[in-house]
Specification:
single chain, 242 residues, mainly alpha, Bovine Mitochondrial F1-ATPase, ATP Synthase Beta Chain, Chain D, domain3, 2 domains, two-stranded antiparallel sheet, 10 helices, 2 strands, 2% strand, ATPase_F1/V1/A1_a/bsu_nucl-bd, hydrogen ion transport, transport, ion transport, proton-transporting ATPase activity, rotational mechanism
């Protein structure tokens, strides 16, 4: 008996039996399914049934692909139900990663909300902290999430490099907000324009972190460079607030 859109009523059960093949036998079987709904309609029966089964979803975005942003995965609609599966590993080896990941998700979501306001009233009317959010979100999208798999420096990213990049970007975000908020009532207010003009070199170094080559530069040098950038950034913000 046909169900929604003429698909058989057992569509969901058949899809489930296929995806559940992964992990049901000894050794490792990975299944990555590619579903292309007509017109990008996520209410399509096959798409809806698949999303009800799988535990991880990477939502490809046509607009990102048109902007040459690869991988063209929409960070707002994509998800994983295994987010806590590696928490023990993170707590043991990269204790700062989970809070950083949470903060990044918050910034990207806030940037999406602010973009609607910007279209209506313009960026100039935003609060200084909101301007910081937009600029840091741009850093995250263009210099962290976007990758060039054909380059030596970006074809793979060791986890220490991932965490180091996130740490420095989020540190810049936190320090920028602190500088703005702590001087809001003083005569020498720190605005985003002041930060941008004073931190030109820091912003350049933040956007250049991805160019560190794990093979050519090595872990020790990359870690040292990231630590030095964090130290220089902290000193620059102290001078800015004095």
């Amino acid at each position: 008996m046909p169900a929604d859109s003429g698909y058989p009523a057992y569509l969901g059960a058949r899809l489930a039996s296929f995806y559940e093949r992964a992990g049901r036998v000894k050794w490792s079987v990975s299944i990555v399914g590619a579903v292309s709904p007509p017109g990008g309609d996520f209410s399509d029966p096959v798409t809806a049934a698949t999303l009800g089964i799988v535990q991880v979803f990477w939502g490809l975005d046509k607009k990102l692909a048109q902007r040459k942003h690869f991988p063209s995965i929409n960070w707002l609609i994509s998800y994983s139900k295994y987010m806590r599966a590696l928490d023990e590993f993170y707590d043991k080896n990269y204790v700062e990663f989970v809070p950083l990941r949470t903060k990044v998700k918050e910034i990207l979501q806030e940037e999406e909300d602010l973009s609607e306001i910007v279209q209506l009233v313009g960026k100039a009317s935003l609060a200084e902290t909101d301007k910081i959010t937009l600029e840091v979100a741009k850093l995250l999208k263009d210099d962290f999430l976007q990758q060039n798999s054909y380059s030596a420096y970006d074809r793979f990213c060791p986890f220490y490099k991932t965490v180091g990049m996130l740490r420095n970007i989020i540190a810049f975000y936190d320090m920028s907000r602190h500088a703005v908020e702590s001087t809001a009532q003083s005569d020498n207010k720190v605005t985003w324009n002041v930060i941008r003009d004073a931190m030109g070199n820091v912003l350049y170094q933040l956007s250049s972190m991805k160019f560190k080559d794990p093979v050519k530069d090595g872990e020790a040098k990359i870690r040292a460079d990231f630590d030095q950038l964090l130290e220089d950034m902290s000193a620059a913000f102290r001078n800015l607030e004095d």
